[in-house]
Amino acid sequence: MKIHIHVGVHKTATTYTQSLLHANRDKLHQAGIGFIGLWEFRSTFTENLMNFEPGVFRIEDHLPRFFEQKVPREIRGLLISEENLIGYCGGLVNSGTPFGTAANRLAHLRKLLAGHDVTLFCAVRDYHSFLASAYCEGLRNNQKFVTFETFRSRLQWDKMNWAKLLARFEQSLQPERTVVWRYEDFRSQAGRILNAMCFDQNLDLVPPTQKSEYQSFSKATVDALEVIAKHLDPEIAGRLIHPIGKALPKNEINGAFEPWPANDVKMLQRLYQSHCSAIPPKKFLFPPMFGEPDGQPD
After folding, report:
1. 152, exposed or middle or buried, with CB in 10 Å at 0-12, 13-18, 19+?
2. Which of 36, 190, 221, 268 lies in disulfide reach of 41, CB 3.0 to 4.6 Å?
3. pLDDT of the chain along its 298 residues, tens only?
């Protein structure tokens, strides 16, 4: 059976993509494409991934979950979109290791899906914006506030390399094919990306009716949390991450959280382009288009 696995990465329009697929799951099912909504998949599969026993677990036994109404006679394939399969942003914030658990998790997933035709789907993102967004996402699920400077000092730069990370993902999952794109190209190429995920069925997918991305924190939110952590306690600041984030949303008044100096941004952009160039061109769904991003969903 063909299985398309979209592993993210985090903060590359994954939430928007999953919401769109969930909104169109009837169309997917009618086309013979099995899809489970993110939260059901996460609670049922992702959180139990390492407990499933190869040879005992059979994804075929779970087809009724992938097809809500009725399992069709002819199945085109299964579509899985779940960035937590490769880990969590909290792990990056606390350890400084990008996707440190991904190798073991994807290797185990490969054993669970032995005998199936797997395609890996993965986006990459400019380092300066990815790291700022991933830091904010990591804070959302942290019990203790961590300053960006602490996070930056922990970051293992030798491992923050999309070409090498993608190679690790592939070595562990051993997909038959890999499909890659740049997050910065998502808005202009979303149709092509989603069509590839949906087994090239040219489905007329309707955008979700509700806003579906988690925005990064505002500059005011992070500044306020830093003051609380410094003068009171990082754990107190940790308990206030959500209420302060809600009270000080990203807007013209509170500003966007952009922690990198201009020279660092330019350096990281050059590094990103260099690493993208090290990814074999045949893996890209379309040639990467380097330039200014055009307001992407997070």
Report:
1. middle
2. 36
3. 999 999 999 999 999 999 999 999 999 999 999 999 999 999 999 999 999 999 999 999 999 999 988 999 999 999 999 999 999 999 999 999 999 999 999 999 999 999 999 999 999 999 999 999 999 999 998 889 999 999 999 999 999 999 999 999 999 999 999 999 999 999 999 999 999 999 999 999 999 887 656 778 999 999 999 999 999 999 999 999 999 999 999 999 999 999 999 999 999 999 999 999 999 999 999 998 776 554 566 6
**Tokens of residue 163, six digits:** 């070409």
* DSSP codes joined into one string, 178-230: EEEEEGGGHHHHHHHHHHHHTTT----PPPPSS----PPPBHHHHHHHHHHHH
Q: Is 2 helix (H, G, I), strand (E, B) or coil?
A: strand
- Structure-token match 């960035």, residue found: 83
Residue 117's beta-bridge partner residues?
A: 2
CA dihedral (196, 199, 203, 207) positive or negative? negative
pTM for the whole structure? 0.94
DSSP assignment of 217-256:
PBHHHHHHHHHHHHHT-HHHHHHTHHHHHHHS-SSTTT-B
CA distance 53 to 201: 33
**DSSP SS3 for 80:** strand
Domains of the chain: 2-127+159-215+263-283 (3.40.50)
| Cα–Cα dist 97/161, whole Å | 11
